[in-house]
Amino acid sequence: MSGQFPEVSAETAQESGQTRKVSAPPEPCPRNLSKCPRKSRKSPGKPVKSPPAGAVSGQFPKVSAETAQESGQSWKVSAETGQFPKVYAETAQVSAETRKVSAPRSRVRAIPRSVRGNRASVRAIPKSLRPSEPSPSNPPKPPPNPNIHASHEKCIALAKKFSKICNQMKSFQSTPITTNGERMNQMNKSRWIVTLIAVGGVGVLMLASFFFWPKVNITSAQTVLADQPMTVYFTAPVKPSVKASEFYVTGGNGKKVPAKLSYGSGRASLKVEALQPGDYELHVPNNSFRGWKRTTDSTFSFAVIESVEPVGSIKEIETFFRQAGQQHNRFMRSDIQMESSSEDKASSQGGNTYSQTNQQVEGVDEADLVKTDGQFIYDITNYEQLIITDIRNPRKLVNASITGFDGTFYPRELYVDDNLLVVIGSKQHDQPVTADEAKRMMPTQELSVIRVYDVTDRKQPKLIRETGAEGYIIGTRKIGRHVYMVTNNRPMYWIQNDLPEGEELLPKVFDSADDHSVQPMKIDQVSILPGAMEPSYSVITALDIHSGDKSGVETKAYLGSGEQLYMSKDHVYLIATLYGNQATQGNSEVFKFRLNGTAVNFLQSAQLRGTILNQFSMDEHNGYFRAVTTEGNLWDEKNIAKNHLFILDNQMKQVGSVENLAKNERIYSARFMGDRAYMVTFRETDPLFVLDVEDPQNPEVLGELKIPGFSNYLHPLDERHLLGFGYETVAKKNPQGGEPIIQTQGMKISLFDVTDFANPKEKATEIIGGQGTYSPVQHDHHALFLHPARNLYGFPVTIYREVKGENFLNSEKAGAMIYEISADKGIIEKVDLTEKFSSDYVDWGKEVQRLLYSGDTVYTIAANEIKSYSLDDFTLLDELEKE
Q1: Are residues 229 and 283 in the same domain?
Q2: 205-247: pLDDT as tens digits
Q3: How far apart are CA 157 and CA 64, in angstroms?
Q4: Is the pTM of this model over 0.85?
Q5: 416 is a domain residue
Q6: Is the separation of the CB atoms in 721 and 793 below 8 Å?
Q7: Contact 595, 576 (CB under 8 A)
Q8: I want to staple 749 with a disulfide (CB 3.0 to 4.6 A). Which of 101, 273, 602, 766 is the partner?
Q9: CB of 100 within 8 A of CB of 3?
């Protein structure tokens, strides 16, 4: 005989007169938890007979159906086949080594099913807690890291104890049984051991669940103004049974202080109000969340301040980044459209003899790729050179000058101010580092730069001033002689712990009027914005372009990110999106600053529910700040999308609102025009909402229009008419059932008549091309060509059409389209300046990027060429290849 425990035969043994299959007994302890060796032992009784012929080696011989009857707690086993007592299922494991088995004659009592049933609990140890045996493919693991989480060490210790109990039980089961009394004692002992193992296994699982169950994170700003509420966000809603009053606040002395506490929407946030300036801690009660969820911290520290002051030391900055960084790592941002900003009506060009950039706020200039002063065109459309073209004779265009940047500077946008030309862009700054520093930091920085050129002689532009700050550009504006640039800088704070004095945490700036070297900002130039949660800086640079000395520039840095800006003549508003419990559920923090030449000072802040789409979703009018937002998610039934209008007074206090508009849709475009606001939402159709905002305390919806398609950009035609630039859509049947599939078609121009505010109408439409047709005006309003005196509106366009019977789009032609649009005549195509493709791909160098006019001539500007056309009949006058 092989000396192994035989396996149970697949043949049937009859139990209580019925046939049942006896399966091979399971393993006695979790796999890989321990090797569980079994020592060979000689049997004190008679040797076991050899298995019947034909039986598989290592199996139990066939048990007689007549004698295999189970009566309550014992089995009678035929003496002919050897008296094999019923072996407890947990000990009937076939060992990897052979062993001899004794065949005692006496009957033993079967282990009750209630005890045997605990095997599932014993075997339920997670695989992650079972040590694996070393092998060539699985080498021994190194000693545990001393920094390993304490909970993991506890689980390992419990697993070792559990393994020890397993080995003790196996040792007990391999001991020969001599008398009935000993058998009974050992069987009772076995029951207790099995029960202990089961309880231990459940305990290990509970302990592992406690330590590794997802925790509830808390996030909030570290500072808040005294007259503003502080909102704390949780990654899970608070249980309905927990009242807001069960949270409490303590002051710097550790004593409770009175505070107004209230839940936000869905009980996933808590608002704290009515606190005096000082340092506080918010205490979160135990068992506030469902299941075994617990918070990462039971307290949250914050400060209430009266005003924003410069930080006192680098330690304050380090503390901010440490805490903000920990919060930021828990939440991820969703993609958000990042446009610049503007105000409540488009700038008028009626009195000009040449094009002005399409801007939102009259008197607040916006930069663009192309500018003109009526005599010259300045462009950076190839993003490598500054090209000045003489257009004084439209029939003979001349390159006045071409200024290269040698790959060290990358232009982004332009401003023109008489004989001064402002070019804004970025460059890489190589900073000297030691060998040790090179191992932990990048040797280059991206700097956002303002360059001022003297173009009195257009043939020889002269660089006279250069200033900049570290980070990427959020937006720029120009008011009179002052240019404002806002950049965002996110230092790599996670590698700064070992830097002396933490200077690498400060933004870098430079100014050619002072010193060309790049230096960290001074501590007194840095402040922490109230309500700020992002581990980054918003750096505001204000430059007087007519000043040649260092007093003409002022730079300030504010801890707390701003991703959009809106600017009126007197104020700049920075918008930061705050993400609470999900990446699709954000609120907007609005920071207001006063402008006074190069001086920019923080005033107030406010928090709005939902996110702001772009600059046209907000404005300032008669001292009130107005904005529309989208809250929630289109595909989340628990937090469906909804849209709001908010109006705030001069102190950034909310005075009016219209909420929960167009549920399960999101805002695609918006426009404020004096006492009216227009908003387009979309999911299946394109509702245009007309809102009355004349009374800031009582705004209301006046009318609504639902049409196919949607508008990405709204532009005022006059006080009673509005233009929409977007796409046509069609609804197609969903083959899987449910909501129809919305498919985008050609580009769409809509003329809306809002004379009757309660009943807006789509007076005229124009569909251009088919699916895939594209124009930059869809996402960049600067691409819109305007000639108000002639009612002309144009834009660059690339036209595609779907090929019938084929599964692809055919690129047809590219260039520009110009329309005559008026309330009386509707939309009339004036000229098609597109050209058919000579190949399957658009020639980027000849793709029109902007249109502008001067006098009676219209110009199309591409990266490699400029063309001039007569505005009277649109005949081609001249074309110039840029050298």
Answers
A1: yes
A2: 555 544 455 577 777 778 888 888 888 888 788 989 999 999 9
A3: 47
A4: no
A5: no
A6: no
A7: no
A8: 766
A9: yes
